[in-house]
Each structure stands twice: as structure tokens, then as C-alpha cells.
Amino acid sequence: MSAVQKYLHDFQKRIPAHLRDSARAEVCCHLEELTRGWQRRGLSRSEAEAKAVKQFGPVQKISNQWRQAAGVVDWFDILLAALPILGITGLGWHMVGHLIPLTMHLTIFGLGALIAWRRNWPTWWYAWLGWLFLALFVVPETRWLFFVIFPLLVTLIAADSWQHATLMTLPFTTYFAFATLIERQQLFTTGWGPGFIYPGTIIWVETAFSILWIAVLAASLRAARPGRRGVYLLAGLIGTQLIYVGAVTAMILLAKLLPAYFITTLTASRVLYYKLPIGLLAIGLTIYPLLVWLAARWVRSGDTGPRLTA
Amino acid sequence: MSKLDMRTGSTAVMILRLLVDKPMYGYQIVKELQTRSEGYFDLEQGTLYPALHRLEKENLVRSEWQVVEDGPSRKYYYITDEGRLELENSARKWSDFSRHLLNLLDGIA
Hints:
The complex is a heterodimer of chains A (310) and B (109). Helices cover 76% and strands 2% of the residues of chain A. Chain A has 310 residues and is an all-alpha fold. Chain A folds into 2 domains: 3-69, no CATH class; 75-301, no CATH class. Chain A has a two-stranded antiparallel sheet. In chain A, helix 1 (3-13) runs parallel beside helix 4, helix 2 (17-40) crosses helix 3 (45-56) and helix 6 (102-118) packs antiparallel against helix 7 (123-138). The longest helix of chain A is centred in the C-terminal third of the chain and has 34 residues, at 268-301. Chain A is elongated and about 90 Å long. Residues 303-310 of chain A have low confidence and may be disordered. By secondary structure, chain B is an alpha+beta fold. Chain B has a single domain (10-105), classed as Orthogonal Bundle (Arc Repressor Mutant, subunit A), CATH 1.10.10.10. Helices cover 53% and strands 13% of the residues of chain B. Chain B is built from 4 helices and 3 strands, in the order αβααββα. Chain B has helices spanning 10-21, 26-36, 48-57, 81-105; strands at 24-25, 61-66, 74-79. In chain B, strands 1-3-2 form a 3-stranded antiparallel beta sheet. In chain B, helix 1 packs across helix 4. Chain B starts with 9 loop residues before the first helix and ends with a helix. Classes of the chains: A mainly alpha (310), B alpha+beta (109). The A-B interface holds A 22-23, 25-30, 32-34, 55-57, 61-62, 65-66, 68-71, 120 and B 5, 8, 25-27, 44-47, 49-51, 53-54, 57, 65, 71-75.
């Protein structure tokens, strides 16, 4: 195998399938021109190829830059995006009843912001940003600030990139929706079993859902084609929200079908006037960035039919 | 806000400047850059393409494959109207930057 063939072989292994042909052709063309240039200076073909691949740059470095330019998200970035979810789960396991001091929270996010700024605001940063706003929301004194800034920021970001805005809303469409829809002490066993179904198993349930959310995040960010990323993210989020609805429905059905074994604190009015609006809000918040993006595209292009493209 | 960040945009500015004159393919851009800068700007050649693709994502350039008689097809890059505008903005910023820096360094070099 010649030096150029080996370079192309190693290079194309590192490039996503949908970019491979075009990338290979472009690199091949460049290496061929470089080789011919060295041959014109009197080098043999093999010497010229060796010089050409050296001039082009190390295959790992160039292919990594190519992937980054194409928007491919690496596993390290996915880990960074999932860190807040892992942090919340870790808190559940090791620090039940303890809250993170606000200063520590701001320090962690400040460091994250610094890293993100140095790396030119990568995708994972938008997942972090949402958790920062969750902190504003849960503290009563700053809740008003949340309702002022958050909707505005989500809308502004969504106009440009609905995937980034959807990542920002993650804490509310995943953890917050879960915590308000599947509340503690909604389902009891009567004279048998653990009594409270939910609180006794809260850590395991939260961990299971955290794994699910991280899987959705990883599957969406890892999608090589940017256009599919958002679709996977939306599908995953709406899927998990339907699981919450299914869980609430299952609680009601169990209590109705097996009243000797299960009772529930859920009432029709609570379901209609609290659970249902929260559920609809979670789904609405999930698709809101997409709707904003479509509206912005329509306004920018002046077309009557906005296209859903990456 | 300019899409061409001063921190990372010097390669991008150079590429846009070259493409204003005529559409070029990757190897041609590198050679032209070397020639016009008298060898001062000597990129690691493979790094040109991620820069070009980022510009294409930002809609500052567009590309087109063209069949060549005596070799493999070439992907030519063209500057867009938005690219021309960004180039003007960046050229102004770079000009201000270098003017102030030279004032600061006056008498040193």
C-alpha cells in the first residue's frame, strides 16, 4: 500500500459514513497535487507521496478537525453534556436531604462556562445551561428572574438552533417533569408488600430514568447527521414523557382494578387540573424550540412552507 | 456580532480574501496563500478543509464539484454575498487591531 493509499485508508475510517466519499475525494485530490509537485522537483513517486502526506498533516489530527467542523460530537462531549444528570443522580445516592450550596453550584457552572467559552460554545454547553436555570427556578427568591430570562433565552437560541434550545430545556422536560408527575406516595400496597411503592424505591427509579435520559442524550448527540440529532432528541424526550403518563395511568388503573391490593392518592381533579397541565406543559416545552425555529425560518425566507432541515 | 471570531478567524479571513478574487479549490488556496505571503503563511495543509467546511456551514462560502480533464474532480469554493460582507467587517477589525498594536509597539521593532 502506498503512503497516500494508507493515509486515505486511515483517514476515511475516522470520518462518518455520510461524509466519507466527499471527504476522501477532496483529500485524495489534494494529496495527488502535492505528490505531483514533489515529483516535478525530481523525487520518485514513493518519496513524493511520503512528503505529501507529511505536508498534509497527521491523519488523526486532520480527521478530528474534519469531524469537529462537520459537527460530529465525540464521547467526551457527550459525557460533559450528561454530567449534570449524573451529578443529580449522584446527589440522590450519596447526599439525600442535602442541598448543594448555591456558591458551589455557581462555581461548578462557572468552570463549565469557562471551558465552553474556550471551546467556542460546544453543543454540550447548552445541556448545562438548562441546569443552571433550574437552580434559579428552585430558589424562591430568584424564581422571578427565571421566568424573565429563561423563556427569552430559549426563544432567542431556538430561532437559530432548535436542537440547542431543546437541550437547554432538558432539566424541565426530564427531571422536573418526572418529579412533579410521578410524585411520592401516590401508590400504596394495602396490607402486603412495601407500603409506599414509590418513595422506598425512589433512588432506583430516579437512577433508571437518569440512565434513560443519558441514553437519549447520547443517541441524539452521537447521530452523525446533524438533521437526525434533533429528531432523536425530540423522539426520546417525548417518549420519556409518555412513560410518565403511562406510569400515572398505571397507578390509577391498578387502584381501580385491584382495590384490595392497591390504593392511590391520585384523584380525578388532581389528575385533570394538575397532572394533565404539567404533562402538556412538558410536551409543549419539548416542541416549543422547534416551533420557534420553524417560525423564524419562515420569517427569514418568506416561504409559505418552512422546511424541516438541519 | 461577526461570525469570524478574532480568536480563531485569521485563517478564515485569509481564505475569504483569496476567494474574492476567484473561486479556488483547496490545493490552489494553499499555494496562493503561500505565494502571496511569500511563504510566511504556510498552513498544515489538511487544516484548510475543516476551516472551509466551517465557512460553508456559516454560509460564507459555497462549494461545487467540477470535473477536470487531466485528473480527479475538484471541489471549488466560491465566496457568497454574506461572505463578502463578513470579510469587509473582519478586514476593518483586523486593520484597527494592527494599527493600534503597531502604535503600541512603536520604537520597539
